[in-house]
Amino acid sequence: MRWDEFEEACPEIATTARERFLRDDLVLVGTLRADGSPRISPNEPDFAAGRFFVSMMWRSRKALDLLRDPRIVVHSVTSDRMGTDGDVKVYGRAVDEQDPAVREAFREAIRARIDWAPDEPKFHCFSVDVEEAGYIRFGDEPIALAWDPKKGLRTLEHPG
Q1: Is 45 exposed, middle or buried (0-12, 13-18, 19+ CB in 10 A)?
Q2: Looking at residue 131, what is its pLDDT?
Q3: 38 partner at 20 to 30 Å CA-CA among 23, 28, 64, 75?
């Protein structure tokens, strides 16, 4: 589901995810290489037109991964070993956005964030359709949450 639909379905995780992704201005993106092995890459997140975008350089390895196999995981960056900010994970499929209005909304989001935007047509515009999400926090207030459209939001037994 698109990000705006995910925010409506599971604000408990979506709100935290958006705040973290925008605050850190960086996420980790997991893709699958041609041989099936995993690739992890830093990435800049953006939100616009009801979508969650992950920016990629034209013909980068991770972009080619997603054009071949759209499965993706997005993970918040962890800033300390105790995990006191918690970890957000979003699982889904990358959508190669071709609609000119969506691509322009993506460009405007980047421009607002860093005062620059890529030129058409040589940039990838991937949004993430959310299929599952999770959040876990350690420390004094531990919590473990999971969400998918079939089971909804669940509180899990915390492993710590």
Answers
A1: buried
A2: 98
A3: 23
